[in-house]
Recover the amino acids of this structure.
């Protein structure tokens, strides 16, 4: 059954859209990430124009993260105070990201920046996660007891000025790194159409030493709020949010995420992280290859304006 | 200079043969409606060549050739070229074409080069390449190269095409042509130009307009995304939040 996408101006098979939404939703439920980093490339490879894909996936990430964020909130695992700082700086970053998005699209370099961005981000985060999870798995096999990082272990980041107390996270830390993390993720997320959960979680854990029980919830809450703002920004600035496309993906995504979450219970934390790392690395390699391999067609075209 | 030439040729083309033939033609659809299940639309163009009203001719004498040119709304389009810079492929060069048709199909009753000469084809913009002449580039050669590549890319997308056997003559002076508009046909005003050739000369021509437009819900969505972008964005977010919440409730997470 074909469904016509009014903003992308093409018709796509409905089951294909719900299907990839569901498949990515399953993975996002399994690993606890938004899944934007998989969905945006999949849509671009299947013919949806890159600007429409990025802007519409932003809407889908909101839906995919909402149920998780609510569930964590009910359990009291969201540090709203910390999330507020992250969201406010994130929205500021999103303004920059959406503006850069429009500039790059007009200059014809959007595809390049998206490819390089995915390669660098996914490549580095994937490699780090793979190393960390392999080490954890090996240590477990050898029977070494891993000592949890304690929240009161300090690094140079904790010596910065303008400290604020985050009660729920049991943190007394400078707002500067918090704001920088928010800004960065807001910028990158709106530019690449990803929620940034897979950058946010390691940043909160390793840089700020946020305790494990509130990391996922806080990150999800931040993703929901920031991606909601980014969706509106994209809708206003580039008018490339396709509500039909986003809705089809949401329906598949929210359903898939539930199955993914229950499947995740059968795997251990470090195994999950290892698998996610492989997935992230695979996407990064795919983008890397598209940069260095000779393209099938060196010519491409784009519409720059209506002239009627 | 080239525009002046086109104008001149058009002028003489119109004034030249004080034809005794007239063309009556029709398009099957005046509007092509894009609904949620739009997957393309078949159209037909048909008509007859009859003696002109003022002439005392009783019948027309062929053989005739008919060429139907279907043009979509114009856009500004760029063609870009990737080159390898230090091992990385990136867009390094681009040429912009203004007023470039978003859809262009030629249906004819025979090989275009057999019907008439290249000059007439180019002057009347019957060849796809003739639309790449309005180019925003100082470099003529580059414009021609990128123009040819743009036509090739448009052809690969099914937006450009030349079908040299698409016009049939069920009777000597009656023709019909079929065209399938693809699902990615851009919405907007379309024009179908019909030319009748006899011995390589245009003896009659006519144009008909038709519209491809979104209707109903699709039209509403596309319009509100442009006219009320803030509200549209808010609705997207509310829809996303609701879908996410509903998913959580339904599956008791």
């Amino acid at each position: 059954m074909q469904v016509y996408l009014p903003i992308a101006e093409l018709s796509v098979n409905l089951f294909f859209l719900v299907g990839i939404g569901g498949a990515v939703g399953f993975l996002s439920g399994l690993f606890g990430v938004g899944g934007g980093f998989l969905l945006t490339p999949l849509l671009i490879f299947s013919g949806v124009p890159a600007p429409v894909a990025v802007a519409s996936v932003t809407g889908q990430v909101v839906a995919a993260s909402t149920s998780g964020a609510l569930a964590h909130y009910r359990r009291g695992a969201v540090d709203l105070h910390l999330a507020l700082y992250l969201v406010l700086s994130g929205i500021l970053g999103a303004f920059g990201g959406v503006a850069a998005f429009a500039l790059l699209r007009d200059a014809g370099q959007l595809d390049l920046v998206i490819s390089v961005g995915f390669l660098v981000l996914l490549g580095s985060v994937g490699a780090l996660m793979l190393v960390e999870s392999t080490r954890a798995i090996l240590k477990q096999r050898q029977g070494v007891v891993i000592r949890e990082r304690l929240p009161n272990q300090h690094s140079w980041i904790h010596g910065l000025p303008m400290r604020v107390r985050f009660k729920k996270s049991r943190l007394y830390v400078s707002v500067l790194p918090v704001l920088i993390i928010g800004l960065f993720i807001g910028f990158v997320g709106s530019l690449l159409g990803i929620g940034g959960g897979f950058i946010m979680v390691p940043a909160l854990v390793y840089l700020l030493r946020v305790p494990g029980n509130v990391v996922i919830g806080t990150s999800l809450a931040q993703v929901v709020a920031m991606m909601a703002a980014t969706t509106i920004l994209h809708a206003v600035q580039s008018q490339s949010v396709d509500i039909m496309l986003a809705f089809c993906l949401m329906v598949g995504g929210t359903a898939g995420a539930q199955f993914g979450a229950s499947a995740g219970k059968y795997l251990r934390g470090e195994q999950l992280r290892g698998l996610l790392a492989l997935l992230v690395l695979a996407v990064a390699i795919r983008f890397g290859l598209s940069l260095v391999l000779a393209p099938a067609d060196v010519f491409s075209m784009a519409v720059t304006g209506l002239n009627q | 200079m080239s525009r002046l030439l086109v104008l001149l040729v058009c002028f003489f083309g119109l004034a030249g043969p004080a034809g005794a033939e007239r063309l009556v033609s029709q398009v099957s659809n005046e509007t092509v409606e894009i609904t949620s299940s739009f997957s393309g639309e078949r159209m037909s163009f048909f008509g007859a060549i009859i003696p002109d009203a003022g002439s005392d001719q009783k019948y027309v004498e062929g053989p005739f050739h008919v060429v139907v040119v279907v043009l979509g709304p114009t856009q500004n389009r760029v063609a870009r070229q990737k080159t390898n810079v230090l091992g990385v492929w990136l867009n390094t060069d681009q040429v912009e074409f203004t007023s470039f048709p978003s859809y262009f199909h030629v249906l004819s009753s025979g090989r275009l080069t057999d019907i008439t000469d290249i000059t007439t084809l180019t002057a009347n913009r019957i060849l796809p390449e003739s639309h790449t002449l309005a180019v925003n580039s100082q470099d003529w050669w580059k414009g021609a190269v990128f123009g040819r590549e743009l036509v090739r890319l448009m052809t690969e997308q099914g937006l450009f095409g030349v079908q040299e056997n698409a016009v049939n003559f069920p009777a000597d002076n009656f023709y019909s042509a079929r065209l399938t508009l693809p699902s990615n046909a851009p919405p907007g005003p379309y024009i179908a130009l019909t030319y009748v050739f006899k011995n390589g000369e245009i003896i009659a021509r006519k144009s008909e307009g038709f519209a491809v437009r979104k209707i109903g819900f699709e039209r509403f969505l596309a319009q509100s995304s442009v006219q009320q972008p803030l509200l549209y964005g808010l609705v997207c977010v509310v829809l996303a939040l609701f879908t996410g919440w509903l998913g959580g409730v339904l599956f008791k997470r």
Q: What stands out?
A: Strands of chain A lie at 2-5, 10-13, 163-166, 171-174, 299-306. Residues 2-292 of chain A form one domain.
